[in-house]
Amino acid sequence: MAMRFDLFFSALPAFVLALVGCLATEAASAQPATLLRVEFEFSNPGARSLAFGGAFAALADDATAAYANPAGLGQLIEPELSLELRSWQRSVPFLEGGRVDGEPTGQGLDVEPSPLEGRARDKTTDVSFASYVHPRGRWSFGLYYHQLARFEVETEAQGQFFEIVPGATARFPATRERLDLDITTLGLSACWNLDDHWSVGLGVAWLEGGGVAQTELYFPFLTGGQDLFSPVSFTPDELDARFDATIDTTDLALRFGLRWQPNDRWAAAAVFRQGARLEGLLTRASVREDAVSADTVPTAIEVPSVWGLGISRRALDGRLTIAFEFDRSDAGPLFEVEPDDEASFSAEEYHFGAEYAFVVGRRLFALRGGVWHDSRPRGLLDDSGTWHTALGVGLAGKVVQFDIGVDFSDFVDTYAISTVYRF
Question: Is the pLDDT score of 137 beyond 70?
């Protein structure tokens, strides 16, 4: 079943639409049709939190609270050091070919009646989080490092076919895209215990971003190099236009946390992490022999703000812990091209997790599991969001704690090992 042309346009990010606008007078409305998404790491750090399905804001009872919820730092009575190694295996969707409107002609590549979704693979392993927390009376202070985004992905797409008027077929340009992005955070958090039930946390984060996003447009079928239905070889003589966005800048952001624990069983929390604006430059160039030109304009990546609410309960004399967290993120377009660009997105996440702990000898073992749902439409042809399943185990002694966690979904699998050392 063919996708309507206007619905296809609504799926394109603002950055791609802006690029298309620059070529409209030259490319007969040919449009790039791939979509690369930045996967920010909004999930709370630590393998324990990962295995909880990310439902950690109300617990926040170890050194990872410096990021997850600074108000949880007030639960710590000894200095703690945490370290996490995390690996991501991503499958990034993009539109590879097929039809977005009309019926296929059966010629050359024009044989699929609907859009084809391809997957670009990316694997990254890195030290994703480290923190040190020092409690002092009613105050606790934390210093942390967090990897917000880091990946490199490349795609090639032959371009989709569509119908200009009944019986007249046109084709989007073939595209080659590359996205290489690295965003890290250095943060300082502080917590004040108001009394035995309430604590409040504040923090400031220094975000540093660097990266390159490249889009190349190939459509020799418009310039006589080949017919409309033939595959593009992506050779230099077929290249028509190129766009390079570079980011290399920093920004400051605020953090806030609130935690309420009325008794030993229940706890509730609220968190807010301000987004950031990482600025850069976008170079737009036409490289056809008969029209060589280029211009550079400001651009920026909008890192989303996130706020969340959480609740947790302990049962069975503390052996069983269950937790729930709701998070919402809001941001502008991936790459902003015009200062007054109003494109934006919002997403909701629902996290649920549980832990069962038991003592063997002098050590505490824990089994964990969780599920969560991300409302962002990761797939280009399906807007139902993504379900995640998480599992993990933990082993804790008096001084050292080790945790392993995994998180599986259709678009990214995450593996983590972390440790907490108590002085």
Answer: yes
